[in-house]
Design a protein that fits this description.
Length: 140
């Protein structure tokens, strides 16, 4: 794993406004420290630069892993995984209560691959909504 300088780590966290750039979960109130994710994985030649790093909650980081391509469950076509450095969250996802709905092939594939509607995250989102922290990721 590539070492990330503290100043670059801080830039990524501030740019993301302390939210997972894949699911939007606020790092505030979470026990686990969020990961700095290489959008294009190091094993695929991804660099440790600001334009290739995203803040990711532990679950999104682990489910994403080194994936670059994922399958759209609706069409079964392979698409590039959602890239928060190049794509706007609101172009690919919308909220239906506390569930994330993919509105494009990229969005549907990410919802499926990152398991964005698993029971535990739905419970967390319900609590986040009560605390007024239930918001989609902001455009960077």
């Amino acid at each position: 794993m590539a070492s990330i300088p503290a100043s670059l780590r801080q830039l990524v966290i501030q740019r993301a406004r302390n939210r997972c750039e894949y699911c939007g979960l606020s790092q505030l109130g979470q026990v686990a420290t969020f990961h700095i994710d290489h959008v294009t994985p190091v094993v695929a030649g991804g660099l440790t630069t600001a334009d290739n790093l995203a803040l990711a909650c532990v679950a999104c980081s682990l489910y994403k892993g080194a994936k670059q391509n994922v399958e759209d469950p609706e069409t079964t076509k392979t698409v590039k995984i959602f890239n928060p450095r190049q794509q706007l969250w609101t172009d690919h996802f919308r909220w239906n209560g506390v569930e994330v709905v993919g509105v494009t092939a990229v969005g549907r594939a990410a919802v499926n691959a990152l398991k964005l509607n698993r029971p535990l995250i739905l419970a967390i989102w319900t609590e986040e909504e009560l605390l007024s922290r239930h918001l989609p990721p902001s455009p960077s």
